[in-house]
Every structure is written in C-alpha cells, then in structure tokens.
Specification:
It is built from two helices and two strands. It has about 50 residues and is α+β, with helices and mostly antiparallel strands. The protein has a single domain, classed as D-Maltodextrin-Binding Protein, domain 2, CATH 3.40.190. It has a two-stranded antiparallel ribbon with strand order 1-2. The longest helix has 10 residues. It is flat. The chain starts with a helix and ends with a helix.
C-alpha cells in the first residue's frame, strides 16, 4: 500500500504504473515500474525480460 499514492499520482499525470509483466499495477503487487508513459516504459520492460 505504500506505493498506491505514488502510482495514482503518476497515472493522473499521464504516466504509467505497471508490474514487471506490463499489467497495470495494483496494491499488493510485488513489483512496480513507473514512467512518464512514453515508449521508454515498453523498452525497459523488454530489457527486464531479456535472457
């Protein structure tokens, strides 16, 4: 729950808040990735999942 307010602020400002799989972040999720909502978000997700 500590991240809920921050995730809300990011989303209201037009950004993205997802878990590491790209699914919208929800309280209780174990990880979070936030960005300004540009293509960079998807690029970071791709980097996280490179093997």
């Amino acid at each position: 729950w500590d991240l809920a307010a921050g995730a809300l602020l990011v989303r209201e400002a037009g950004g993205k808040a997802t878990d590491f799989t790209g699914k919208d972040w929800a309280p209780g999720d174990s990880n979070i990735l936030v960005s300004n909502g540009t293509q960079t978000h998807e690029e970071v997700l791709k980097i996280l999942w490179q093997k």
